[in-house]
Amino acid sequence: MERAVALCAGDRVELMDLPPEVRGGSSERPPALASTSLAAIERAHILAVLERHQGNQTRTAAELEIGVTTLHRKLKSYGWIHG
Q1: Fewest CB within 10 A of the end CB: N or C in the chain?
Q2: Phi first, then psi: what are they for 53, rounded to 5°?
Q3: Exposed, middle or buried, 30 (CB in 10 Å: 0-12/13-18/19+)?
Q4: Number of domains in the chain
Q5: Using one digit for the tens of pLDDT, what is the confidence trace for 31-63?
Q6: Is residue 83 part of a domain?
Q7: What DSSP letter does each residue of the chain carry, written as one string?
Q8: Residue 29 lies in a domain
Q9: What is the pTM for the complete model shown?
Q10: CATH number where 48 lies
Q11: Whole-number pLDDT of residue 49
């Protein structure tokens, strides 16, 4: 999932951003996501956007459409911010 987030062209991961084995026609959860929690996917996405903005939390929060305080709280829970 991190790879798809990092390589997608726009603001969100689209079906064509996923590898063929993941975007198959199955109604089951794709194998790559079968054991990944929503929290882990969210964390990966937030950190990928933060990296894309070179650590700038204001721009990261704006792209994610969340408040800077919310982003700060999430980063603190990930251990990315100390204190």
Answers
A1: C
A2: -95, 15
A3: middle
A4: 1
A5: 665 678 899 999 999 999 999 999 999 999 999
A6: no
A7: -HHHHHH-SSSS--GGGS-HHHHSS-SSPPGGGTT--HHHHHHHHHHHHHHHTTT-HHHHHHHHTS-HHHHHHHHHHTTSS--
A8: no
A9: 0.59
A10: 1.10.10
A11: 96
